[in-house]
Specification:
Elements (H helix, E strand, L loop, with lengths): L2 H4 L4 H10 L18 H12 L3 E9 L5 E9 L3 E6 L5 E6 L2 E6 L4 E6 L6 H4 L1 H8 E4 L6 E7 L8 E8 L7 E9 L5 E11 L10 E2 L7 E2 L1
Antiparallel strand pairs: 1-2, 1-11, 2-3, 3-4, 4-5, 5-6, 7-8, 8-9, 9-10, 10-11, 12-13
Helix pairs in contact: 3-5
Length: 220
């Protein structure tokens, strides 16, 4: 696959931004009819996410056309996350716990959103987002749990569906394996995780970035 064509403007930034922040979701069509999750089931999802103090995992991000790019995701409680894309992709998505930032080093551009406006809030603040806005989605496998998170009063904040599989070695006994974000045109972005490592040493400096608009300056 030609990485340059994949990240050609404006498609490349839109591809990364789909992971970072949802667009208006009024036209979304759910893949299945959701049912309200029982409290215990949502508690399992929250426990699985809140049980992660730090995690590093390889990720593959795929759009609805099947185009994929990969990289490494780093997560640290509370509220910090970093998506470092593979070599040749001049994009970075990072959260310092307060805001989510998309950095495009090719055109020296920085975009920020409040974490509360992003579907990734379900990962970064699971007690608030998963517990308040989560619905259990039906699955055919008892070892798979799927939770859709959306705020019906704020559709512009987007939708994220988190998928967990039972894994006794993962925090809370459930391992986050992938999630799906949808935009207003029902465009789907899927992020799959593999090689999850928990409890790794992660410095807070991992959630800073070099601001391309200010040469040499790192920003939180």
């Amino acid at each position: 696959m030609n990485i340059k064509s994949l990240i050609a403007k404006p498609a490349g930034v839109a591809f990364a931004a789909a992971l970072a922040v949802g667009l208006p979701a009024a036209a979304l069509i759910a893949p299945a009819t959701p049912v309200f999750a029982q409290a215990g089931q949502l508690d399992s999802a929250v426990a699985a996410l809140r049980g992660i103090s730090t995690m590093r995992a390889d990720f593959t991000q795929t759009d609805r056309k099947g185009q994929s790019i990969g990289g490494v995701m780093t997560l640290k409680r509370p509220g910090k996350i970093r998506f470092e894309y593979e070599k040749g992709v001049p994009l970075l998505v990072v959260s310092n716990g307060k805001s989510l930032t998309l950095v495009d080093y090719e055109v020296n551009q920085v975009q920020r959103w409040p974490i509360s406006n992003s579907p990734l809030g379900a990962l970064l603040d699971p007690n608030r987002d998963v517990k308040k806005y989560g619905k259990l989605m039906p699955t055919s496998n008892p070892n798979v749990m799927s939770v859709e998170v959306r705020d019906p009063k704020r559709p512009e904040f987007g939708v994220i569906t988190l998928v967990f599989t039972k894994n006794s070695s993962a925090p809370g006994g459930w391992q986050l394996t992938n999630w799906v974000a949808l935009d207003a045109q029902n465009n789907r972005t899927t992020v799959r995780l593999r090689n999850q490592r928990y409890g790794v040493s992660v410095s807070d400096s991992a959630f800073t970035y070099k601001d391309p608009r200010r040469s040499g300056r790192r920003t939180r």
